[in-house]
Design goal:
The chain has 390 residues and is mainly alpha-helical. A three-stranded antiparallel β-sheet has the order 3-4-5. It has a two-stranded antiparallel ribbon with strand order 1-2. Helix content is 56%, strand content 4%. The longest helix is centred in the middle third of the chain and has 27 residues. Strand 3 and strand 4 form a beta hairpin. The protein is globular and about 70 Å long. It contains 18 helices and five strands. The structure holds s-citryldethia Coenzyme A.
């Protein structure tokens, strides 16, 4: 299947996926979206401009960008039945479970989304999903908080609107500090795509059956939910809290070396040097902490990183901080509970999933996913009658 990674179980993934969306060089720590280095995009672009780049393959002109922002702003609301559906979840439902279910539910509100051969229709669904993901993500948070859902305020920018739907507590407009809006927008950029990661592969695999994009992205959300993938940022905070103080770090490191647990936020399937996003996120920490005050867990994280980077166990296994090691510290400084961290990852990753889904639907050679298997079971056995077995 040209559009999918082919796995040799028990060995390394043997990718055979062609894509022009994202380039990674794991040895050199390079990440580029449509050829543009992540460092330049994080520094100078906006999340919606990067979303346009990923989906359309080029940076937008002024007119194209204004139309793009208008169209996305226009689609931030969701049908009231979706709101009722989300209000039906238990009070303690995990936001990622709610997000996965709600995005999947959207496929029943837009049955035309299954007509994936129509280019205009594909773009309408893409715009709808980028627009509605923050609304669904914010409502998953409000449900967990036991607070009423806040409707989009389309006078605000995309990321400021998301923060408003999360934290608004009165009738007056919620205006988040611009530095926080910028930092969260940058975090969304850093998470926007990442080649053939587990969740992108899930989207491609499900999408190769020619199902609608909502169902394919719901599968990606399910993959991202896992602690080895998107759930790692939540696990990092729990790990730092459990370590508790710098003096406890050596004992924790010994536990990792003994195989008791992993150093969450370290290691990567591709980056065998540093994850370029981790460097940028570390800088964003300073910007956020200038506003919110320093997260007390930062000191433990920095000491843990320092010790690990000098320890042969990690260096010999080429384990370095990945995108998740510091992102949780920022999210916690925003007052997000850990179970919301992966929802933030999902909102950021949505344009990447959709860019790869779109690429898949445009690939005329694309066939349905059918990864190779290496059979390791028995062969040619004769059935033993039950009276001889029981
Ligand atoms: C993301 O694919 C993507 O692009 C994902 C992502 C994206 O943007 O989509 O980048 C986002 O998922 C980042 C990764 C977040 N996950 C974590 O931080 C969880 C902790 N990390 C690990 O679970 C692990 O590093 C993985 C899952 C990320 C990678 O697993 P691999 O490919 O098995 O790691 P490896 O082959 O490089 O491991 C080599 C050795 C092994 O030990 P030995 O068998 O040689 O003795 O290193 C060990 C591993 O057990 N190891 C770790 C470790 N990660 C690998 N040991 C301790 N702590 C770790 N974190």
């Amino acid at each position: 299947s040209p559009g999918l990674a082919i796995y040799d179980p028990g060995f390394v993934n043997t990718a055979s996926c062609r894509s022009a969306v994202t380039f990674i060089d794991g040895e050199k720590g390079i990440l580029e979206y449509r050829g543009y280095p992540i460092e330049q995009l994080a520094e100078s672009s906006t999340f919606l401009e990067v979303a346009y780049l990923l989906i359309n393959g080029a940076l937008p002109s002024k007119a194209e960008y204004e139309q793009w922002v208008h169209d996305i702003t226009y689609h931030t609301f969701v049908h009231e039945n979706v709101k009722s559906f989300m209000e039906g979840f238990r009070y303690d439902a995990h936001p990622m479970g709610m997000l996965m279910a709600s995005v999947g539910a959207l496929s029943t509100f837009y049955p035309e989304a299954g007509v994936i051969g129509d280019a205009d229709n594909r773009m309408i669904q893409i715009i709808r999903m980028i627009a509605k993901m923050p609304t669904l993500g914010a409502w998953s948070f409000r449900n967990a908080q036991g607070k009423p859902f806040v409707y989009p305020d389309n006078e605000l920018s995309y990321t400021a609107n998301f923060l408003s739907m999360l934290f608004k507590m009165s009738e007056s407009r919620y205006e988040a500090d611009e530095r926080l809006v910028k930092a969260l927008d940058t975090l969304f950029i850093l998470h926007a795509d990442h080649e053939q990661n587990c969740s992108a592969n899930a989207v491609r695999s499900v999408g190769s059956s020619q199902v609608d994009p909502y169902s394919a992205v719901a599968a990606g959300i399910g993959a991202l939910y896992g602690p080895l993938h998107g759930g790692a940022n939540e696990a990092v905070l729990r790990m730092l809290r459990r370590i508790g103080s710098k003096s406890e770090i050596p004992a924790f490191i010994e536990g990792v070396k003994n195989g008791n647990e992993k150093l969450m936020g370290f290691g990567h399937r591709v980056y065998k040097n540093y994850d370029p996003r981790a460097k940028i996120i570390k800088k964003a920490c300073d910007d956020v902490f200038d506003v919110t005050g320093v997260n007390p867990l930062l000191e433990i994280a920095q000491e843990l990183e320092k010790i690990a980077l000098e320890d042969d166990y990690f260096v010999s296994r080429k384990l370095y901080p990945n995108v998740d090691f510091y992102s949780g510290l920022i999210y916690e400084a925003f007052q997000f509970p850990p179970e919301m961290f992966t929802v933030l990852f999902a909102i950021g990753r949505t344009p990447g999933w959709l860019a790869q889904w779109l690429e898949l639907t445009q690939d005329k050679e694309q066939k349905i996913a059918r990864p190779k298997q290496i059979y390791t079971g028995d062969r040619g056995l004769d059935f033993t009658p039950r009276d001889q077995r029981w």
